[in-house]
Amino acid sequence: MTEQPIRTVREFARAAGLSEDRTERHRAAGALLLDGEPVTDLDTPVPDGGKVHVAGS
């Protein structure tokens, strides 16, 4: 069985087309959420089935 690589909030945001600068602005504003909780570190791992969301979008 092949192990899936751990993806971070940063990688999810990049895959969604957000620039590093825009991602950081959303994080600093408390609008970047992982499973409904504000993200404080963009390198936070996203668990399998985890949801990354920008509040207000």
Characterise the protein shown here.
There is one protein chain. The chain is an alpha+beta fold. The protein has a single domain, classed as Structural Genomics Hypothetical 15.5 Kd Protein In mrcA-pckA Intergenic Region, Chain A. It is 28% helix and 21% strand. The protein has 2 helices and 5 strands, in the order E-H-H-E-E-E-E. The strands form 2 sheets. The chain has a 3-stranded antiparallel beta sheet with strand order 3-2-5. The chain is globular and about 35 Å long. The model has no long low-confidence stretch (mean pLDDT 92).
Nutshell version of this structure?
The protein is α+β, with helices and mostly antiparallel strands.
Mean pLDDT: 92
Assembly state (oligomeric): single chain
Query: Helix-strand pattern, N to C?
Result: EHHEEEE
Specify Rg, calculated over alpha carbons.
Answer: 11 Å
CATH class: Alpha Beta
Shape: globular
The stretches of 5 or more residues where confidence is low (pLDDT under 50) are none
Helix content: 25-40%
How many distinct domains? Answer: 1
CATH architecture heading: Roll
The profile of the biggest β sheet is: 3 strands, antiparallel
User: What is the CATH topology descriptor?
Assistant: Structural Genomics Hypothetical 15.5 Kd Protein In mrcA-pckA Intergenic Region, Chain A
Number of helices: 2
